[in-house]
Amino acid sequence: MPPAASPVSHVSDTARWVAMYRAMESDRPDALFHDPWARKLAGPDGEAFLKSIPKGRQMAWPMIVRTQVMDDLLLNAIAKDGVDTVVNLASGLDARPYRLDLPSSLRWIEADFADVLSYKQQILANEKPRCNLEFAPVDLTRDDARTEFLNRVGAAAKRAFIISEGLLVYLQSEQVAKLAGDLGRQPSFRWWLIDLASPDLLKRLKKTWGKSLEKSPMIFAPEESTRFFEPYGWHEKEYRNTFDESIRLDRTMPLARFFKMLGRLSSKRSQERFKRFSGIVLLEKK
């Protein structure tokens, strides 16, 4: 994955950005998680990216919260629900197969662009994953390639857990619908872990990062929240509000508890909208 001349020339460049946030958290004495490879994976471009975008370091907390909550939901499903396969769609520079306490028998498949996976394999060449790790070069935006890949994985799995961290927000609604349908048609795909933005959040992000991400804009933020996925067989099993989780994990914005108290004085409608402002969601197929 060659260095980018601008902050983001392609959506895959955002992987270095998020890796830097994991590196920042790992440096803390009270770190929620430890990713010893994050800084090396991010490379010089990751640090440069944080310096080039507005509020680059101040906005670390939502990404750190997202990482920790997704870790928790995934590990809980593996321990309690008999997950035999994890499929990480648009895996980027994620190092979960190396840093999480996973069963050695677990099959883990990383799916992303070929150059992204090649770069990650090069950096982690001397490291040993905790489980049975496979790399699957695939362009998930191509219908034929995505369908072939998911059919192949679905046929071999029994109880599969899908992750798409930081992916959906960069897709058009039609693309998300196609992906949800493809995943829903695989009987072995039982759970799908996503992060989900609201239209209100998207407006704020565009004000802050719109120019920095103009070549890979954030798009998907359904007004109907998780109901968007129901026609494709996916139903909400668990929704974690990012702001509430940030307070619980003590990784939050300044004056967060004060704003939370003020929120209790707002209208019921406003309170309900804020509950769905930003979340980490575990979908389940029924």
Short descriptors:
286 residues, 16% strand, Rossmann fold, 7-stranded mixed sheet, 11 helices, alpha/beta
What does this structure look like?
The protein has 286 residues and is α/β, with parallel strands linked by helices. The protein has a single domain (11-285), classed as Vaccinia Virus protein VP39 (Rossmann fold, 3-Layer(aba) Sandwich), CATH 3.40.50. 44% of the residues lie in helices and 16% in strands. The chain contains eleven helices and seven strands. A seven-stranded mixed β-sheet has the order 3-2-1-4-5-7-6, with helices on both faces. Helix 1 (14-26) crosses helix 3. The longest helix has 22 residues, at 60-81. The protein is globular, with a radius of gyration of 18 Å. The chain starts with 13 loop residues before the first helix and ends with a strand. Mean pLDDT is 92; it is low at 1-5.
Helix-strand blueprint:
Layout: H1 14-26, H2 38-52, H3 60-81, E1 85-89, H4 96-99, E2 107-112, H5 114-123, E3 132-137, H6 143-156, E4 160-164, H7 173-184, E5 189-197, H8 199-209, E6 234-241, H9 242-249, H10 256-263, H11 268-275, E7 278-285
Parallel strand pairs: 1-2, 1-4, 2-3, 4-5
Antiparallel strand pairs: 5-7, 6-7
Helix pairs in contact: 1-2, 1-3, 3-9, 6-7
Order of helices and strands: HHHEHEHEHEHEHEHHHE
Strand content: 15-25%
Mean pLDDT: 92
Terminal CA distance reads: 39 Å
The unreliable regions are: 1-5
Tally of discrete structural domains: 1
| Structure classification | alpha/beta
Count the beta strands.
7
Oligomer: single chain
Alpha carbon gyration radius = 18 Å
Helical stretch tally: 11
